[in-house]
UniProtKB/TrEMBL annotation:
The gene is jg7773. It comes from Pararge aegeria aegeria. One of its GO terms (biological process) is recombinational repair. GO terms for molecular function: 3'-5' DNA helicase activity; ATP binding; DNA binding; hydrolase activity. Keywords: ATP-binding, Helicase, Hydrolase, Isomerase, Nucleotide-binding. This is DNA 3'-5' helicase. Residues 1-474 form the UvrD-like helicase ATP-binding domain. SUPFAM superfamilies: P-loop containing nucleoside triphosphate hydrolases.
Length: 1089
């Protein structure tokens, strides 16, 4: 099957289940094409990371082929192509040349967005864009455009209608959503009106119906208590009509942009609950279906009046039609108002983009589609591309949108028309892993496009194959996956074919453990003027209990040296992945609890900086410093951890202050705090935002941590990173920028840091781990979108109104959402290589992941374990492979679980106070600088420094090189540089160093770490040669290549190490910090301080 899939003479469609080697088969296909002398290859990937990984692996393979001995090369090529033999010298020669000829092979690996951007940039005139257009997400434009839209005179009536239901923020979100779904403009109001069956006119209820209601009210007034209560509602409605004009006709706007704003009384009835209350008597509250007669009138009254049943049915029919028309009318009116505003919004948006020569990601897809489908340009454009495209490979095809499929079909439509040249298409994907509908992915198209291309080829030279052998997971994990999802074949793969995963690791043991649900606790609501609940010792937070149980389990594994059975080695932090469905407070708790027990963790994979209260508090402080009359900002600052005001404290200041501002009153109330704020006001007016926030967080970090937990350090570090990156010296500009853009922070979850990874399942796509915790399993997602989009992406703003078509669309969307929820579970479960732990908390919703795992996981074994602090005693857990070995082996000293330095350690801005007489900032070379606020390593260009620079550079990278490769690597490194220094002497020196101090490289650590802080109010930036972290120590290593060291220089070095030690101690307050200087001249080691 695989040999056919990589055969360059066939076009191939591959359905590859999780862990079956999808990326490898894609790379093998490219290598086989190159080996067969095929050129002009275009590989389209879903992400830049995938493109980079694919490119690296191809280049790595080709570079090895170039230098392999013949025997190894033949063996490698035989695995790839059976036609290759030792006698076939042409293949061997070609394989060795591929690396050197790479530039001329016509191999292009990129995302589809990158391809489209390159395409339209090559043909700007045909695409209708400026030649210098820049690709941008254009997020910063939306706040500007929204402000202009709000003040546009042509849509003020529409805005007034919208304002009755939404504030500015929600309207901004709605317009942004529509901007993403750009096709909304293509649907005119006529289409929406027809789908809603919205009437042109709405009449008041007929006089005959009104009389019937009056008569029924009188009849019910003589009946039971329930009858009398309904009678009161009917009388109330009749009386309310006396002030209204009967039989009023409302002229609904036509499908253009003109609207008449004279609202019909009947519409206002629904808004003020009068018609709604009337409808509740006769119709069901949500569906507006007719109620049974017995639920409207009692049997006695019904028997007393013979015609009352017919009269009620008549009222129900009239009222049902009336309410249906009103609902349709209001949905149409609301939607048309929104689209009127959006038309202005998108016109301004496009104008602003054009003015700034910007294109967003939707633009490039649409422009490229237009270019490739335009019969006047298409052939000429394809002919004039930098390279002709003969072979197309598409990765992650299940996540393509319909627009992206249009581009692919336009590129390869000519492939199947016959001709002298063999041109091929290779598509790989897994519809079971399609989880990006919110980005426009359409999983239904995966199977449809397979059939489309099969028809195009007429079945000639066409291969469809299914990869089922999983190289990733153990049999236990795959068995659970098969058991669950064979109950949902149509839902996740859109066909009824059996879902089967064949384990490659059939002899490896795996383990699955399902914890009992975290019991429900009655959680109190936070009351005003009450001590915060989290400050009470007896207060239980369910999510924190779950986080503590996870952290304790992981800590015990690492601390006691648990062995990962299938890999026969100790478990490392990097082996563990914790998956959540969405980012929530549970993630913060898990990060906090892991840090408390000294387990290294890469926290949030992605977040927006302004979503966190610590940053909101800092920005509120900045807003107050800019404008002291901003009472709201000051109130927020005072209640923040920076000042810890209680509700009573704030009330005492705010109450009865008359014309005084809160700031004026505070100065009379609290001298110490007002003096501190006055100092900050002066600082904000004379210093940069960097200096200001560095000063604030000098003590503020600990205050935030005391209330918000240690997890806030990551947020504060990223905030300071943004402050450093922001080039404008104005605090006002910084505040406006960060509030309008709410920058995204992304962590690299594929980094080599030895740390536990916590991420959403969407971000885990393409990743894997030996041990996976799935912790967010007990709820089913609910659709909370304000706008409903049908299959054509036409918008319907339903609000509280009901409509038959909208209800149908809602049901379809709910089903699609749940099916994607199932596919998300498939992705989550298949991230696990060896062990899988499934957790949840009460209550469990029907159809949730936890429910499905319990219901469809077949028979589980049972055993008892401690799960503290959730349960005090041993509890029963469900598991697969209950006899899974639990082996522990104590580590050696240099093999203990270690804490990696934070990836953003350079952003750990701390305050440093020196002893009297030590006032000068010290650079990392040991020299002082009277004037510099920021210092850095200063290495001259003279020969004496050149030798030191080379040595430092080698020592920086050596820890990353395997021990048995270091000798050859150092020689190659020295051969690759141009220097007048004695390379043999340096080579000998480095090898001697490696023999003597290689144990230092065995410690977990990082080289060349920038670290910043302040000394007497002045920022200082230093760079550590190497920092190693063990369980209880932080070891600073500094290399010195001086030939002669004077007494004064020695003192300067001691001062330098004091700076290093103080900064590192602030980052790791619970560890003993040691400073080590290694003198490279005689390879002696000196411990300082």
């Amino acid at each position: 099957m695989r040999s056919n899939a990589i055969n360059p003479n066939f076009s191939v469609w591959v359905s590859a289940s999780a862990g079956t080697g999808k990326t490898k088969i894609l790379i093998d296909r490219v290598l086989r094409l190159l080996l067969e002398n095929k050129r002009n290859i275009l590989c389209l990937t879903f992400t830049n990371a995938a493109a980079n990984e694919m490119e690296d692996r191809i280049y790595s393979t080709l570079s090895k082929w170039a230098i392999y001995p013949e025997g190894i090369l033949v063996a490698d090529l035989e695995q790839l192509a059976q036609c290759v033999t030792r006698e076939n010298k042409d293949y061997l020669t070609r394989a060795r040349r591929l690396f050197s000829e790479l530039e001329n092979l016509g191999l292009n690996i990129q995302t589809i967005h990158a391809f489209c951007y390159k395409l339209i940039s090559s043909f700007p005139t045909e695409a209708g864009i400026a030649p210098n257009c820049t690709l941008s997400e254009c997020k910063e434009l939306h706040s500007i455009i929204f402000e202009k839209t709000l003040h546009n005179e042509t849509v003020q009536d529409d805005i007034n209608i919208i304002a009755a239901e939404f504030d500015e923020n929600k309207l901004s979100d709605l317009l942004y959503t529509l901007c993403i779904k750009r096709s909304a403009l293509e649907n005119n109001l006529g289409y929406i009106k027809d789908k809603l069956s919205a009437p042109d006119k709405i009449h008041d209820l007929q006089s005959e119906t009104i009389e019937q209601i009056k008569r029924l009210a009188k009849i019910l007034s003589e009946g039971s208590k329930r009858d009398q209560s309904y009678s009161a509602i009917l009388y109330d409605w009749c009386n309310s009509r006396k002030s209204s004009v009967p039989n009023v006709v409302i002229q609904v706007a036509d499908t253009g942009t003109q609207k008449k704003r004279n609202m019909d009384p009947s519409v206002s009835y629904l808004d003020d609950n009068k018609i709604e209350n009337l409808a509740k008597v006769f119709l069901k509250s949500e569906s507006y279906e007719k109620k049974s007669i017995s639920s409207i009138i009692t049997k006695g009254a019904l028997e007393k009046f013979e015609d009352v049943e017919q009269m009620i049915e008549s009222i129900q029919n009239a009222l049902f039609t009336h309410v249906k028309d009103i609902n349709s009318y209001q949905i149409f009116g609301r939607t048309s108002s929104l689209l009127s505003i959006f038309k202005v919004y998108v016109d301004l948006y496009n104008s602003e983009k054009s003015k700034n020569a910007l294109l967003d990601y939707d633009d490039i897809i649409n422009l490229a589609t237009n270019l490739l489908s335009n019969p006047g340009y298409k052939d000429w454009i394809l002919f004039n591309l930098d390279q002709k495209i003969d072979h197309i490979l598409v990765d992650e095809a299940q996540d393509n949108s319909i627009s992206q499929w249009k581009i692919i079909t336009n590129l390869c439509n000519e492939f199947f028309t016959g001709g002298d040249e063999k041109r091929t298409l290779f598509v790989v994907g897994d519809v079971k892993q399609s989880i990006y509908r919110f980005q426009g992915a359409n999983p239904h198209l995966f199977n449809y496009m397979q059939q489309y291309f099969h028809t195009k080829t007429g079945g000639r030279d066409w291969v469809s194959c299914q990869l089922e052998k999983s190289f990733r997971s153990t049999p236990e994990v795959l068995m659970l996956v098969d058991r669950i999802f064979n109950n949902f074949r149509e839902e996740i793969s859109f066909n009824d074919n059996k879902i089967k995963h064949i384990p490659y690791r059939e002899n490896d043991q795996g383990y699955i453990e399902i914890w009992p649900l975290l019991p429900g606790y009655e959680e109190e609501e936070q009351q005003a003027l009450q001590i915060h609940l989290t400050q009470r010792k007896d207060y239980v937070v369910k999510d924190r209990l779950l986080a503590q149980a996870i952290a304790q389990r992981i800590h015990n594994w690492l601390n006691e040296g648990r062995i990962l059975v299938a890999k026969d080695r100790h478990i490392e932090p990097r082996d563990i992945m914790i998956l959540v469905r969405q980012r929530n407070v549970l993630v913060d708790y898990i990060i906090s609890e892991l840090k408390k027990v000294n387990v290294p963790v890469i926290g949030r994979d992605y977040f927006r900086i302004m979503d966190y209260i610590a940053v909101q508090d800092l920005i509120a402080l900045a807003e107050f410093l800019l404008l002291q009359a901003n009472d709201l900002a000051l109130a927020n600052v005072l209640k923040s951890p920076l000042f810890n005001f209680t509700e009573d404290d704030l009330f005492n200041i705010a109450y009865n202050r008359k014309e005084q501002s809160l700031w004026e009153k505070l100065q009379d109330y609290q001298e110490i705090i007002s003096n501190e704020l006055n100092y900050l006001i002066n600082l904000s007016q004379t210093k940069s935002p960097l200096t200001l926030f560095t000063h604030i967080l000098r003590t503020g970090r600990k205050k935030f941590a005391a209330r918000l937990g240690l997890e806030c350090f990551e947020i504060l570090d990223e905030f300071m990173n943004l402050v450093l990156q922001f080039e404008h010296p104005s605090l006002q500009a910084f505040v406006q920028w960060i509030k309008e853009n709410n920058p995204e922070i992304k962590n690299d979850m594929q980094s080599k840091l030895n740390a536990v990874r916590i991420m959403t399942i969407h971000k885990s796509k393409g990743l894997q781990a030996p041990i996976v915790f799935l912790v967010d399993t007990n709820t089913v997602p609910r659709n909370s979108e304000n706008i409903l989009f049908d299959a054509t992406e036409a918008p319907f703003w339903c609000g509280k109104n009901s409509n038959a078509y909208c209800n149908q669309v809602k049901r379809e969307k709910k089903l699609e959402d749940y099916n994607e929820y199932l596919r998300l579970l498939y992705v989550a479960l298949t991230r696990a290589e060896d062990e899988l732990y499934i957790l949840g908390k009460e209550p469990v919703q029907k159809g949730s992941w936890y429910d499905l795992v319990i219901q469809y996981g077949a028979l589980y074994e049972r055993k008892k374990l401690y799960l503290q602090p959730i349960f005090k005693e041993k509890v029963e857990v469900l598991c697969m492979n209950a006899n899974y070995p639990s082996i522990y082996k104590k580590r050696d000293y240099f093999d203990v679980p270690v804490i990696s330095p934070p990836s953003n350690l350079s952003m750990s801005l701390q305050h440093v106070t020196l002893e009297p007489g030590e006032k000068k900032p010290v650079s990392s070379t040991g020299m002082t600088d009277e004037n510099a606020g920021m210092t850095k390593r200063s290495i001259g260009t003279t020969d004496s420094y050149a030798r030191g620079l080379i040595i430092h550079s080698i020592l920086q990278y050596m820890p990353k090189i395997e021990k048995d490769r270091r000798k050859n690597w150092v020689r190659k490194y020295l051969d690759s540089i141009n220097t007048s220094e004695d390379k043999d002497e340096i080579y000998s020196k480095i090898l001697t160093f490696n023999e003597k101090y290689d144990y230092l490289f065995d410690l977990e650590g990082k080289s060349e770490i920038p670290l910043s802080g302040t000394i007497d109010g002045k920022p200082v930036l230093v760079r550590l040669d190497r920092l190693c972290i063990t369980e209880d120590k932080a070891i600073i290593i500094d290399y010195k290549s001086h030939h002669n060291v004077s007494i004064s220089s020695s003192n300067e070095i001691k001062k330098q190490m004091l700076i290093y030690k103080t900064l590192v101690q602030e980052v790791y307050p619970d560890k003993q910090v040691e400073c080590v200087v290694i003198w490279m001249e005689d390879l002696t080691l000196q411990s300082l301080i």
